[in-house]
Amino acid sequence: MKDVFLTTLRDRETKTEGFRKAAHQLSGLLAAESSSFLPKMSSLVNSPMASAEGSKLKREPVLVSILRSGLVLLPAFVSLYPGASIGCVGIRRDEKTAAPHLYSSHLPQLRSDDMIFLLDPMVATGQSAELAIRLIKEAGGSEAKIMLVSFLASSKGMAYVKRKAPDVHALIAHVDEGLDANHWIIPGLGDFGDRYFET
Question: Which residues pair with 63 in a beta bridge?
């Protein structure tokens, strides 16, 4: 179903309501898939009929959203991990150079064994994601415990992230091959934030 929701997001004829619905549905699928990366432990519970073996998370992850578009992924992840700590990193991209400019950073206290989901729907050049990864590491997080979660990325952007942060994991709905001269993902889906927030 990820490809179905992504197709809706790509379609330039998709109106705001449909775009938002597809973004929320895709967020839910990625959130569910993210759970397979978290350590679990066995748990014995008593059902109304008998005892049963089950499992539960050892600890909930930390969620870090890159503003503003990363906010779109956040509700699905909070729904799945209601006890998670949440951080936000505000990064604005220079439209001419694509260089990232940090304007805000609020991260919870991190431990080296925290699993951290870095939420950013679009990874074009990879520079914003790499900056956020650096901030997470400076706050005490471990690179090997960071998972970048995105709807869409360019192969160039992912190569940049892996070169700068080789131990970071990635959960991406789809990787596109190209970037145009203005550093937009091709075929991509346009400006995700503008389409979602209708700005």
Answer: 86, 117
